[in-house]
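Technical note accompanying the year-one report. For the benefit of new consortium partners, we illustrate the data format agreed upon in the data management plan: each record pairs a sequence with a structure-token string. No post-processing was applied to the example shown here.
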Amino acid sequence: MKKFLLLILISPLAMKAQFKIVNSATTSVADVRQGTWPISLLRITNSSDTCYVLQFRTQEFNNSVIIKTLKFCDIKQLKYFQQGLQALKTGNNGDVAEFKDYTIKRVDIYKESTSYILTCDGGLTNFQQPEADRMIAAINKQ
């Protein structure tokens, strides 16, 4: 009888250890560009940390849809991305901001606004200055 009562008291603790509830939420920080070549900045919040993801459709292949993600482990890494964009904004044609996992290159096209080429993990996308400004503004709000 004592073993049975002990089993009843311990079983809820054993059952609780078997299950882990993960609360995570993904929210959109900014939809930088929509349409055929979308770019969006997302915040993923877990119970212990928050990370950010820049999600885009790679422009290397026109006939397939490959979505790439550039993950920023914390707000500090996201701010480095922002600083790279701001430095390139005041830079010159051909300037490159190199980071561990990605690079951003400024490309000035005659009679058009400034463009940037982002390459990471086998993915490539380009975006214009107004889209870069939207990302900078969205990161400032974080």
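Partners are asked to follow this layout when depositing records. The longest strand covers residues 25-33.
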